[in-house]
Specification:
6 helices; alpha/beta; RNA endonuclease activity producing 5'-phosphomonoesters, hydrolytic mechanism (chains A, B); PLD-like_dom (chains A, B); about 20% strand; 6 strands; homodimer; 6-stranded mixed β-sheet; Endonuclease, Chain A
């Protein structure tokens, strides 16, 4: 990237720009979400009337710095896995059309210090399987299905 | 996937099939690599004369169960980051043409128990930036550049 920002800030600003373009819907499916800037952007979209849904990992959502509590406080729907392995996806879909996926968790550590990739894809051929997976997970993690005595 | 295998075994077998199709080259860029089956496949390709290069994360390569030592023992070139953040990529490129990327680290835990995605892409538009990133990292992590007293 030829821009004059430090690499991490440039990556963050490009990601923010993609997210803030949302007009109707935003699906987020993230193992770890602790970046304050990205948390703010998601709350802003919710405030603008964009339909935001978040799926995350139960073991990571409660860690210090997690944005998940703030999202819920703002009235955003969040669902999480209940047991077993990690919910390890790291993707988002903007307006049912733009897939943002890769190795990047939305954490300041990852954005600033790690070697990561983020792929932005608009071909329906790639976007659809991720949207389908989101809807599958969304139903599977419906709190109505929680088992308290596994 | 409509196949009768359990989901993890099916995902593993599809990944193995893609890798074992390599005829000339295989670039692997992985945060964590501990799956014995995938390790075996990579050594097999190396034995067949495929040019295999591996980039991995220094903090994870020494963990119990890591395949990295076995790959090196087999004569495969491995390079790793030296400090700072994680080398968090999870991608491979087969014959300079097929990109395999996503959230999946090549570990049995991830394949069998996690919720993960793997994208297989052949469009040069997507493959090239990953190949470029691999070559950049490969040079950056050249042991000739290691600093022992940072």
């Amino acid at each position: 990237c030829p821009c004059p920002l430090p690499h991490g800030d440039c990556a963050l600003s490009r990601l923010l720009r993609r997210l803030l373009a949302a007009r109707r819907s935003l699906e987020i499916c993230l193992f770890a979400f602790s970046s304050p800037q990205l948390g703010r952007a998601v709350r802003l979209l919710h405030g603008r009337g964009v339909r935001v849904r978040v799926v995350t990992d139960a073991q990571y959502m409660g860690l210090r710095g997690s944005q998940i509590g703030l999202l819920r406080q703002a009235g955003i729907q969040v669902r999480h896995d209940q047991e077993g392995g990690y919910m390890h996806h790291k993707f988002a879909v903007v307006d049912g059309r733009v897939l943002i996926t890769g190795s990047l968790n939305w954490t300041t550590q990852a954005i600033q210090n790690n070697r990561e990739n983020v792929l932005v894809v608009e071909d329906a051929e790639y976007v659809k399987p991720f949207l389908d997976e989101f809807e599958r997970i969304w139903e599977e993690y419906n709190p109505a299905n929680y088992r308290f005595f596994p």
